[in-house]
Amino acid sequence: MRAASGAGTGIARTLSVALAALLAFGHAAARAEEPAAESGIVIRKAAVDPADGPAISPDTNDTAPSAAEAPAPSETPGSSEAPAPAPAAEGPPAPVAPSEPLPAAVYARLADSAPLLQRLTGKDREAIQSFYALGNFKPIWIEKGAFTPAADAAIARLRAAGEDGLDPNAYPVPAVGKLSRPDTDAEIAEADLKLSASLALYARDARGGRVNPASISKLITPTLDLPSADAVLTRLAAAGAQAGEVLQSYNPRQPGYLALKERLAGLRVGRTQGTPSVKLPDGPVLKLGMSDPRVPLLRSRFGLEARAAGTLDAAPGESDAYDRSVADAVKDFQRSRGLPASGTLTRATVAALANPSLPKASASEADILVNMERWRWLPSELGPDYVLVNVPEFKLKVFRDGRLRDETRVIVGKPTSPTPIFSGMMEYAVVNPSWYVPPSILKQMLASGKTAGFEVVRRGNVISLRQPPGERNALGFIKFMFPNQHAVYLHDTPNRSLFSASTRAFSHGCVRVDDPFRFADAVLPNWTQERLKKLIGKGERTLRLPEKLPVHLAYFTAEVDSLGSYRTLPDLYGYDGPMKVALGLAARPDAVAKGPAATKPKSTEARPSARQATTREAVRSERRAAPRRAPDMFGEPDGGQVYAYPQRSFW
């Protein structure tokens, strides 16, 4: 009754979403789209602001008529009747519950508000509803009371989730095909939907959905490509016996990730010996004193005698009797897996018995798992050509056609002003750059009188100090721009001596590059070191890349190097501890970040004086009107996240 009463609202939205998705797909197929970058970074075209001018027709290059110029609706001369109103748009028809019993059971379970999995998001549940609605609510994974080949292949991958550092217990596999009685329609519907939920959650976690990066630091801002549940289920259902490989493909495939995965497997060799798994057929919950044909499997799993021995007062027990010895063995197993130690064979206990028991991760394992998770924050495809900066390693690497082209030392942000972690697209380089003093330190420079060699520049309402190009310029002779919300970039520096230090965390967030002209030779295809150096001293010049180049600022504290040696790096910003807590690898008191706390700049000093507001409402209006991304004219020589125009703070 509860399912029927809630069906109208829940399924109406389901069919509305499904119809809208189909219409959107049809329109999208006819619309020209910008090719996606090979790195997996999504590039969206900005909408035209009406204030910028009239829209231009792409076919005629003529200005489209405005609303005032558009011809009025034709009317019959002499007629006083107003034009007939346009008919109202009709929505999708109200859904009707399927007449077949099994689809009706799926329909009813979807209408029920009870969660399929606790960690499944509401958005993913709606996507699952849309997926089943398109198939008239028929089960996807179960046919004639048994799992399909696609389901079996996908389930095998769920049970092997530990190989990729995921928790197999997070993706429960329902049981079908009871020995004592056939499954009911409601039980089949429940099992089919819960398997869909587990598969969708696995794919999401494999792409980086387990940890919210902002909970570790607001300066970790990757663009996560989390797959929608309906897209995952569509791919898996069509894959048949290859569904396991398709599900596996959501995990990273980069060599660095695969090397850590192999290292993890090596550490775990032998750790699961003596704790074999056993897959029990479905059946009722077993309590002390009951009998069940599954009990002999339990006796074998726990190394018990085939039957309880007889005594002077009692005959030998039956092999299928759930007696005290079996219940005690189950209780010990439950305690070892963190389950309620009742000695009762529950569904959760059956699921845990099907997965090998892994002891608590060692410190070395935890380091590997944390860094495997960070690989999920990078795009699924880094691109054949890209730049990778590993901040704790103080090193930059350039890859061309998937191979290491060059590498060099870098200087990164101090623990009090960390280098942000994200991916961007390098668009251009500037030779002989000027440096515009950001508002965050302008007042300090004016107060100290250290303005020799600077020029006062006014751009609109913004007043700043400009340091002209030259050998003393804070940015050196060249900078490399990949516009981003943090206003950081790669650049040269006049202070070359700092590159000799082993721990090179001296900047305010930007990345200083050792031998920047050699780096330019590697990333600018039409320029050589010699040709670039001839431009020094000849005025500021912008060099655009023929194709945007992915730049990945990453944070790996454990890796397997090119020689196959495993090594760990200093946790420069203290991110490892919070990551271990988020992944359940450490208790909170054991994972206090060791990096110094970041200092928050004073926003009142950072705002340009011309933009200072005299009332609270004026400040709010100014912040709403401010751009989200800092303009390229600003940015400190040591970084840009202390840039403090009125905008959302990342501290």
Explain what you see.
Helix 1 (2-30) crosses helix 3, helix 4 (149-159) crosses helix 5 (185-209) and helix 9 (255-268) runs antiparallel to helix 13 (363-375). The model is unreliable at 1-80, 589-635 and 638-651 (pLDDT under 50). The chain is an alpha+beta fold and 651 residues long. Helices cover 32% and strands 12% of the residues. The strands form four sheets. Strands 3-4-5-13-11-10-6-14 form an eight-stranded mixed beta barrel. Strands 7-9-8 form a three-stranded antiparallel β-sheet, with no helix packed on it. The protein has helices spanning 2-30, 101-111, 122-134, 149-159, 185-209, 213-216, 229-239, 243-248, 255-268, 295-301, 324-336, 347-353, 363-375, 439-448, 516-523, 529-533, 576-582, 603-606, 616-625; strands at 142-143, 146-147, 386-390, 395-400, 403-413, 422-431, 435-436, 455-459, 462-467, 478-481, 490-491, 505-507, 511-513, 541-554, 558-560, 566-568. Strand 15 (558-560) and strand 16 (566-568) form a beta hairpin. It has 19 helices and 16 strands.
